Amino acid sequence: MEQKIFTKNDSGFICRNCGYEVPPLRYTSRNHCPKCLHSLHLDINPGDRAAECGGLMEPIHAEPDPRKGFIITHRCKKCGAVRRNKSAKDDDEDLLIKLTAMH
Prior knowledge:
This protein is mainly β and 103 residues long. The chain has one domain (13-100). The protein is 8% helix and 28% strand. It has one helix at residues 93-100; strands at residues 13-14, 21-22, 39-40, 56-65, 69-76, 82-86. A 4-stranded antiparallel sheet has the order 3-4-5-6, with helices on one face. A hairpin with a 6-residue loop joins strand 1 and strand 2 (21-22). The chain is globular and about 30 Å long. The N and C termini lie far apart (29 Å).
C-alpha cells in the first residue's frame, strides 16, 4: 500500500492567474485559488514545496466524489505534469460543475 506523504502548508497567497488574494483555509493545506481554481506546481508531495518547476497549474477536469466533494485535475502549463487535488469548501461551485463536463 502506497503511503501518502503530507506536509501541512496553509499559507495564503496571491493567485498568479487571476490576482485574487487567497486566504488560508485553516482546516487543511490550501492548494489552489477558490475563484479560478488554478494552482502552482510547487509540490512533489502535498505541501512540501519541493518541486523546482513553479509553473501555473490549469484546472482541466473535476469529478464529484461523495466523500470529498470534488476532485480537481490540474495540468502544469510549463512541464505538463498532471496532479489531482481535493476541492475546498470555498471553491467556486459553478466552475467546478463546468469542469465536470471537460476533459
